[in-house]
TrEMBL record:
Species this protein is from: Leucobacter rhizosphaerae
Superkingdom classification of source: Bacteria
InterPro entries on file: KR_dom, NAD(P)-bd_dom_sf, Sc_DH/Rdtase_CS, SDR_fam
SMART domains: PKS_KR
Name of the protein this chain belongs to: SDR family oxidoreductase
């Protein structure tokens, strides 16, 4: 269903974004695979079979740059037609307890998650409106509830929920849905640096007793991008193995 509908995925050179792009390609959807990290994009391209590459467009995109967004949307439209899906996934962390965190670390995390997701919606929605439909998936986090050492990241991930719902309010009349996926702890390069003893404490709070895999987030994103979720809108879907302490 909906196989011909193109999707832009950000931060798709690594981790969750790569898994989402891989899943969408497997579902036969055309995918505009973007990342700021061109090396990661090249490596991802090299891992794909040639028949899948026919549906993949690789573009460098710094999600904080409005001009980059315009260029990517134009390239995607030129190759595949109007854009019908957007996954605002790119992200960074700059952790420190609040009194040790400088304002630059706060600003860059807010910019990369919140301002960038706003820029992405603004750039892509005109194409979705032209095509008469669309589904936006913003990647929030369990961290939106508050995390020690992540005042910047936690604020950003909570703000993404407000952005998601406001976009849903404004765009529903044009056939565009806007939802968020909120992953728990997922095994990616972002969490690889976390010491095992810290991960062990995380597992104690997760009902399933393990970290998640990027493919488990990709399944949720693919569902929200598809017509299978046609009556789900302005929703935050937790994918966290069960974190009842939240
Ligand atoms: P990764 O670090 O593995 O991947 C993030 C990708 O985004 C990297 O390729 C990174 O490039 C890229 N990126 C960074 N800044 C920009 C930018 N300005 N423009 C475009 N791309 C950029 O992270 P994950 O896959 O773990 O995380 C993906 C999303 O999921 C993030 O939004 C994250 O906050 C969220 N998330 C992750 C969780 C987890 O446990 N892993 C839990 C909850 C949410 P580079 O490598 O060069 O920095």
């Amino acid at each position: 269903m909906n196989a011909e509908a193109p999707v832009i995925v950000t931060g798709a050179g690594s981790g969750i974004g790569r898994a989402i792009a891989r899943r969408l390609l497997a579902d036969a959807r055309p995918v505009i695979i973007t990342d700021i990290n061109e090396h990661a994009l090249g490596e991802f391209r090299g891992s794909l079979a040639s028949e899948v590459l026919d549906r993949a467009e690789f573009c460098r995109l710094d999600v904080t740059n409005a001009a980059d967004w315009e260029g990517v949307v134009e390239r995607g439209r030129a190759r595949f037609g109007e854009i019908t899906g957007l996954v605002n996934n790119a992200g960074i962390t700059r952790d420190a307890s609040m009194l040790r965190m400088d304002a630059e670390a706060f600003d860059v995390v807010i910019a990369t998650h919140v301002r960038a997701s706003w820029l992405g919606c603004k750039a892509v929605i005109p194409s979705m409106r032209a095509g008469g439909r669309g589904s936006i998936v913003n990647i929030s986090s369990s961290g939106r509830h508050g995390v020690f050492g992540q005042t910047n990241y936690s604020a950003a991930k909570a703000a993404i929920v407000g952005l998601t719902k406001s976009v849903a309010l404004e765009q529903a009349r044009y056939g565009i849905r806007s939802n968020a996926v909120a992953p728990g702890a997922i095994e990616t390069p972002m969490t690889n640096q976390v010491p095992e003893r810290v991960k062990a404490t995380w597992k104690e709070t997760i009902l399933l007793g393990r970290l998640g895999q990027p493919e488990e987030i990709a399944a949720a994103a693919a569902f929200l991008l598809s017509e299978e979720s046609s009556y789900i809108n302005a929703h935050v879907l937790d994918v966290n193995g069960g974190e009842l302490h939240l």
